[in-house]
Specification:
The protein is an alpha/beta fold. 47% of the residues lie in helices and 13% in strands. The model has no long low-confidence stretch (mean pLDDT 95). Bound molecules: pyridoxal-5'-phosphate. The site of pyridoxal-5'-phosphate has 13 residues, from helix 10.
Length: 558
């Protein structure tokens, strides 16, 4: 063969190899695309780009009451109901609202939550006429009391922290402080109470080691960092819609000014996702938030996104357990760290958290919220090989994680009270028939709502609820205001997430049920759920899209 022929052959060979490599890359890319959820939440970059295009507009007073095309008599009925509610809010919650207005000028968080309680088109008018107080003065049993002396049944669950009842945490903090008083807030050295916490945590989590942090967000950061360090791979997989705190890599979509380059957001409960996990070589870990079992691939439901009635939720424990088992098998096969983020569900669904509840062991588990016994906390538990932060044979190759307040003696004291309580017969009893109790309560409420022909249905994962709406409507977000008027306290995400503490008695729950139904009846009476054959979730979305485009075009012309 001549030199010329050899060179030509080599060229062909190189070209063929390059083409094959390109095809292979394309194939991988397609696999990745297929594993993305079709919703915007599954396409973080596109969601961020689109979000940046949405212009602000709002309804004037007339349109506020008939944005769905309701006839004048319905709009009048709504207005009358709204004005009545507004008068009640302004008198009954006067002091709480006055202090909130004073604080809001200086607290950016309050401005944010105030603005995002309801869809933005309705927000300013609602804020003005139905102001929400952000202050409370006391708690007792399952109730909290505002600055005007109004007592509410607490459905906020203190963002999920309150599992055992506020009374328990008050005592845990006091008794815990007593335990560590002699040392006080000395940071760096440990108080000996930490030893027992570690022992109990290892036993409960079924893991070898523990690290302490200050919040759930930090615990997740550390778990992901450890997975990247030990696998020497770059990417984390999170599932569409799942919340893991507000750190950038786990919040790649709306809310984060920067794109997250090393995050894959994939479909949960999907074989397409398993295929990606099986074939890619850059995946360090898979993050699971087991709360998503209530609405797989759905974002954390908040009433500001309640544009229509398409919010759905349904918990199928067996299906989710089967999914986690498949995930476990693939992660083991591919040496990917499986991380359960149990900051929310840990100690709420079972003593051993989601691992016990679904019967699947993770490689790393994060806890937070209630574990601090009422004080701020984040914890990572994991296998020794994954928790280690340095390499014996490479002294400069470390995985750094420190924090001034980690292992704070007062937090360790309160945590010790919490963990101790779980060891007692009363602590064990908390979890006895837990799902049976909460499923029955949910069923009872749903039956009562159905009996009154009210367009509401509640879905639950144990003691965690989401309110769904069964009739197309633009006004479901109003329900949170009727609930508050009936003495039911919600967090700023409104009816998206109701969280019960486990010390609710049947009597307490019955009172909540009655108030809940009364609120829905009042809202129905005031005409907010007016329906018409042409009013569908689709037509509502289309109308909002039209308004948005019109506003954008109009704004550009100005
Ligand atoms: C599953 C999950 N992970 C992480 C976090 C963040 O925890 P923190 O608010 O303590 O930072 C939360 C908070 O709600 C959570 O629910």
């Amino acid at each position: 063969m001549t030199a010329w022929a050899t060179a030509t052959l080599a060229l062909y060979g190189a070209g063929g190899a390059a083409a094959a490599a390109s095809l292979f890359r394309l194939h991988r890319r397609l696999e990745l695309s297929r594993a993305k959820h079709r919703s915007l939440a599954g396409h973080s970059r596109m969601a961020r780009r689109l979000a940046a295009l949405v212009p602000f507009y709002e309804y004037d007073e007339a349109r506020f009451f008939c944005a769905d095309g309701a006839p004048p008599e319905v709009a009048r009925c709504r207005r009358a109901g709204f004005e009545q509610l507004s008068a009640l809010y302004k008198t009954r919650f006067a002091e709480s609202v006055r202090r909130t207005a004073e604080a809001a000028e200086s607290i950016s968080d309050l401005q944010f939550t105030g603005a995002y309680r309801v869809p933005f088109q309705f927000s300013r008018y609602t804020r003005k006429h139905l102001p929400s107080g952000a202050f409370m003065q006391s708690s007792e049993g399952v109730t909290i009391t505002d600055l005007d002396g109004n007592r509410f049944y607490d459905l906020t669950g203190a963002y999920g922290v309150n599992v055992l009842g506020y009374g328990f945490y008050k005592e845990a903090i006091e008794r815990g402080a007593e335990q560590v008083r002699a040392l006080g807030p000395v940071l760096g050295p440990y108080h000996p109470v930490l030893l027992e916490n570690v022992k109990l945590l290892k036993e409960i989590a079924g893991q070898d080691e523990v690290s302490f942090h200050m919040s759930g967000t930090e615990a997740v950061m550390q778990a992901v960092r450890l997975a990247r360090y030990h696998t020497r791979r770059s990417h984390l997989v999170r599932f569409c819609g799942a919340y893991h705190g507000w750190w950038g890599d786990v919040q790649p979509g709306i809310g984060n000014p920067l794109p997250a380059h090393e995050t894959y957001t994939l479909k949960e409960m999907s074989t397409d996702t398993l295929r990606v996990l099986r074939t890619r070589h850059d995946i360090a870990c898979v993050l699971v938030n087991p709360l998503q079992a209530l609405h797989p691939n759905g974002s954390a439901p908040g009433d500001s996104a309640l544009l229509d009635s398409s919010r759905r939720a349904h918990f199928d424990k067996d299906a989710y357990a089967a999914w986690l088992k498949e995930l476990r098998a693939v992660c083991t096969e591919r040496n990917i760290a499986l991380i359960f983020d149990e900051v929310f569900v840990g100690f709420r669904v079972a003593r051993g958290g989601a691992q016990e509840y679904f019967g699947v062991r993770a490689d790393l588990v994060t806890y937070g919220k209630t574990l601090g016994g009422g004080l701020p906390i984040g914890v990572v538990c994991g296998r020794h090989e994954l928790m280690k932060r340095f390499r014996d044979d490479r002294p400069a190759d470390i995985c750094f994680a420190r924090g001034s307040f980690n292992s704070h003696p007062y937090v360790m004291g309160a945590m010790n009270e919490f963990l101790h309580h779980l060891q007692t017969p009363a602590g064990h009893a908390i979890y006895h028939d837990l799902d049976k109790t909460w499923n029955a309560r949910t069923q009872r409420l749903n039956d009562a709502l159905r009996a009154e022909d009210l367009p509401i249905e509640v879905a639950n994962l144990s003691s965690i609820w989401t309110v769904c709406y069964t009739r197309p409507s633009r006004y479901n977000w109003m329900f949170q205001y009727y609930l508050r008027a009936e003495g039911l306290a919600l967090s700023w995400v409104g009816t998206g997430r109701l969280i019960f503490s486990l010390n609710y008695t049947e009597v307490d729950f019955e009172a909540v049920l009655e108030r809940f139904v009364a609120a829905a009846k009042a809202m129905q009476r005031d005409g907010w759920w007016w329906s018409h054959p042409e009013l569908t979730n689709k037509s509502i979305k289309r109308a909002i899209l039209k308004e948005t485009i019109a506003r954008r075009v109009f704004a550009r012309g100005q």
